[in-house]
Amino acid sequence: MLEAIMQAGGFNLREAELRNVVVIRHRNGQRYGFSVNVKPALAGDETQPFYLEPMDIVYVPRTEIAAVNQWIDQHINKIIPDTGLFS
Q1: 9 in helix, strand or coil?
Q2: How far is Cα 57 from Cα 9, in angstroms, rounded to an integer?
Q3: What's the whole-number mean pLDDT along residues 14-38?
Q4: Are 8 and 1 within 8 A, CB to CB?
Q5: pTM for the full model?
């Protein structure tokens, strides 16, 4: 799984929720979800590998503070016009 994430460009270590990487797997018409903590593997600890199967979806969520920062940027910073004036 880590190889797939790295091939897709990796994650932003400041924003990624490394303790809760979600893998969605479709098998026999059913959808299964797995939560994987990749933090120990990135720290160099010995861990069990999580092997992906064809058509698996890997989702690395953002931390709560990163989501808040995104909301502030989209809903506050983008609303206030940039006039170029400073006080």
Answers
A1: coil
A2: 15
A3: 90
A4: no
A5: 0.65
